[in-house]
Specification:
Shape: elongated
Helix content: over 70%
Mean pLDDT: 88
Structural class: mainly alpha
Strand content: under 5%
Number of helices: 5
Largest sheet: none
Distance between the termini: 38 Å
Number of strands: 0
Low-confidence stretches: none
Radius of gyration: 21 Å
Length: 158
């Protein structure tokens, strides 16, 4: 025989857990959007200011032909700033989170390959405070990638 009180209580606990997850997501998603957006706006802005250092960093990776280094060095910061601002105002969040995750995965992959090839590369992420690539770079990018995936997954559920 089914105990209706116990079943209703179990359903209530499950509903409370789902409510808690939704409330967490409702607060976490805006925070992550702003955090990721600020990271990209700051990074892109510094690349505009320190364009020469950023172009040198791009050159050190050895992946882009010298003819397009300057074009990439000019375009990429503005793309980052635009996507970062769009993320901060939460405009088309799933598209922007996907685009930023793609950029981060590309940057991280290219950097990993350059490091594995024995190249001494500067991060290029925040020119002006150029840092050699280390574990901190991969940790930071990993957190940003996970944040973008979480935002993307949450946006698709809504």
């Amino acid at each position: 025989m089914v105990n209706w009180t116990e079943e209703r209580s179990a359903r209530s606990r499950i509903a409370e857990r789902h409510l808690w997850k939704r409330q967490l997501a409702n607060h976490l998603i805006p925070l992550l959007c702003v955090t990721v957006g600020i990271a990209f706006v700051a990074s892109g802005s510094l690349k505009v200011i320190y364009w020469s250092q950023f172009s040198d960093a791009l050159m050190s990776y050895g992946f882009l032909p010298p003819l397009i280094i300057n074009s990439a060095g000019l375009a990429l910061p503005w793309i980052e700033i635009t996507l970062g601002l769009m993320m901060m105002v939460r405009w088309r969040v799933s598209v922007i989170a996907g685009a930023l995750a793609t950029l981060l995965l590309t940057f991280t992959g290219v950097t990993a390959i350059a490091v594995l090839q024995g190249r001494s590369v500067e991060c290029g992420c925040f020119p002006g405070a150029m840092e050699p690539v280390g574990w901190g770079y991969f940790f930071r990018n990993g957190l940003l990638i996970l944040s973008c995936f979480y935002i993307l997954a949450s946006a698709r559920k809504q």
